[in-house]
Amino acid sequence: MPKITTSFSNSLIFWYLQNKRDLPWRNEIQPYRIWLSEIILQQTRVAQGLPYYSRFIKAFPTIFDLANATEEQVLKLWQGLGYYSRARNLHITAKEIAFQRDGKFPETYKDLLTLKGVGDYTASAIASICFNEPTAVVDGNVYRVLSRIFGIETAINSGKGIKEFKLLAQELIDRDRPGTFNQAIMEFGARFCVPQNPKCTECIFANQCEALRQRKVNMLPVKIRKQKIKERHFNYLVMISEEEQATLLKQRKDKGIWQNLYEFPLIETASEVSWNEINDSEAFKNFSEVNKIEEVILYNEKPVIHKLSHQHLYTKFWVIKSSAQIEKPVPISELRKYPVPVLIENFISEFSPFQN
Questions:
Q1: Which residues neighbour 238 within 8 Å (Cβ) at sequence distance 6 or greater?
Q2: DSSP 290-350
Q3: Which of 28, 38, 133, 171 is flagged as catalytic?
Q4: Three-state DSSP class for residue 247
Q5: What stretch of H or E contains 64?
Q6: Structure pTM?
Q7: CA distance 299 to 319
Q8: Domain positions in the chain
Q9: Any idea where the HhH-GPD domain is (predicted)?
């Protein structure tokens, strides 16, 4: 491994100050805004996260505004970002800071780690940017930059790799400008040392990059193979009561994907099935006992494939017309007020009876 010198942090910070993007949380040291931006940007690209950040700041300008919101309001605003546990943890932490800490964030990395939904990366970002504590951030961008420049082949998602990269980042950090250094290395990875086709010929570290010297740029960082993708088959029962101009939504209460979001009544099957198979299922018999079904129409012949990190959902929407009075009906005119998974939102947006 090349010798670590202060020239690394100086070069990186110099590049950053000349090339950084103008983002609303940059040049900002208010913990609430830094925390909010970091939670939104976990596993989310800046281009996707930016409008969500703007909407949250407009709806909840202070930590007290966010704390006083309902969970449904938070989930609705978060809709489409995915990994909804982030939104639930965001709300829990907002209430803790507002109501138990008088609106004040912890000021050290160690104490920040006690907050719900705040891990090593987020605690390091807030501590360094807001409180000038020299604790290094390590995210996907940082792994990529360090593994390539220093030629590290330890898997980034192994226990050994997590420790090794954290120690290296901590050695490299500019102790006088930790917040600037952390933002610089993340920016460099996001815009220059990118996963595919990095700008190696223009790179400020080209002369010391081990991956470039050994022609291993596309091989680094090393990551242990992900767990097998699970396939699930969803059959949504979309109730339509023309007389009531209403439909039926259920809230997902079980832990797992989309907890506390709303969806149409769901029958999950082991594989793709026909209507006859659904009709014969125990779950549908229970459903049909309370709903007078007049007509069933399959909305999509080919399942909609919705890809999540560790599972792929194969989804069919069965439109059910009923003359029975729906228990706890949701007026079609109010359908868009409910927080729903993006899979459901897309269906609502294109299904003509829901357009009014």
A1: 247, 264, 299, 317, 318, 319, 320, 347, 351
A2: SS-EEEEEES-SSPEEEE-SSEEEEEEEEEEEE-SPPSS-EEGGGGGGS---HHHHHHHHH
A3: 38
A4: strand
A5: helix 63-67
A6: 0.87
A7: 6
A8: 6-219, 230-354
A9: 40-191
> Which string of DSSP letters, residue by residue, matches 272-296?
---HHHHHTSHHHHHHHHSS-EEEE
Whether 38 sits among the annotated catalytic residues: the reply is yes
Q: Which residue has the tokens 């990118």?
A: 194
| Protein fold of 6-219 | Endonuclease III; domain 1 (1.10.340)
Structure token digits, residue 15? 């590049």
Count the Cβ atoms, other than its own, within 10 Å of residue 112: 25
CATH number for the 230-354 domain, one of 3.40.50.2300, 1.10.10.10, 3.90.79.10, 3.40.50.300?
A: 3.90.79.10
Contact of 165 with 222, CB cutoff 8 Å = no
Burial class for 46, CB neighbours closer than 10 Å (0-12, 13-18, 19+): middle
Q: Of 110, 69, 108, 109, nearest to 90 (Cα)?
A: 69
CA–CA gap between residue 298 and residue 356 (Å, rounded): 22
Q: Which residues are paired to 241 by β-bridges?
A: 246
How far apart CA 305 and CA 287 sit, in angstroms, is 25
Length of the chain: 356
Which H or E run includes 235?
Answer: strand 230-240
Per-residue pLDDT tens for 117-173?
Answer: 999 999 999 999 999 999 999 999 999 999 999 999 999 999 999 999 999 999 999
343 in the Ramachandran plot: left (φ > 0), alpha (ψ -120 to 50) or beta?
A: alpha
CA distance 316 to 123: 41
Instruction: Give the model's pLDDT for residue 5.
Output: 60
Model confidence pLDDT, tens digit, residues 322-356: 877 788 889 999 999 999 999 999 999 999 888 76
What interhelical angle do 85-100 and 71-78 show, nearest 10?
A: 140
Distances from the Cα of 220 to the Cα of 8, 154, 216, angstroms: 20, 9, 6
